Amino acid sequence: MYKKIIILGGSGSGKSTLAHKISLYTGYPLYHLDNLLLNSDWSIKEKSEWEKLSQVFLSKEIGVVDGNYSYTIPNRIKWADLIIFIDIPTRLQLYRIFRRNIRIKLGLDKRHGHPDDSREKIDLNFIFWVFNWNKNRRMKTISLLESLKDKKVIKVRNSKELDLKKLFQ
Fold first, then answer.
1. pLDDT in tens, 44-78
2. What is residue 101's predicted lDDT score, i.e. its pLDDT?
3. Dihedral angle at the C-alpha atoms of 102, 137, 154, 92, nearest 10 degrees?
4. Which among 111, 98, 100, 92 is positioned nearest to 10, based on CA atoms?
5. Burial of 76 from C-beta contacts in 10 A (0-12 / 13-18 / 19+)
6. Cβ of 69: how many Cβ atoms within 10 Å?
7. Are 79 and 148 in contact (CB under 8 A)?
8. How far from 127 is each of 42, 95, 161, CA to CA, in Å?
9. Which of 3-7, 97-101, 135-139 is the most confident on average?
């Protein structure tokens, strides 16, 4: 059975939602990298702080970690025994990001994985980040995952494809 799980994918792909679902199903502790590595104003914490905060979960024998942060991927891959990559098109990512933003502003939803005092932020830089992630980072991530021979890697187009009961029996 898998005990150390990381979830990768572009913004709006459903990483945090899937991580939350897996954590509830398994009872494993949940570590959202956005929550750990971002300040409430969305600025990134200092690298020395990332390393300390990463040890919070890298020293554990079980856990679910979601987020990209390419500079932390090698250590997370070494730690993980299951890697799930959610691969969805940019248009679907953007739709989900805007839908989530509206639902949060209306009080219909709470965003998983962000500090409680942070506000949802969509600006042109973020939209460009989403477009560029799928153009650039997506293929790098796929290549990296395809090169792994000693890890279980699951690539899904929709996190609902995952049968958690079958995966964790």
1. 788 788 888 888 889 999 999 998 888 888 889 99
2. 81
3. 30
4. 92
5. buried
6. 16
7. no
8. 15, 11, 27
9. 3-7
The pLDDT score that the predictor gives to residue 115 is 54
Are the CB atoms for 7 and 77 separated by under 8 Å?
Answer: no
Instruction: Yes or no: say if 43 and 25 are a contact pair by the CB < 8 Å rule.
Output: no
Per the structure block, which two tokens stand in for 78? 């070494």
CATH number, position 115: 3.40.50.300
Bin 123: left if φ > 0, else alpha if -120 < ψ < 50, else beta: beta
Q: Output the pTM of the full model.
A: 0.88
- Percentages of the chain per state (helix, strand, coil), in multiples of 5: 50, 15, 35
Structural domain count of the chain: 1
Q: Domain residues for 26?
A: 4-167
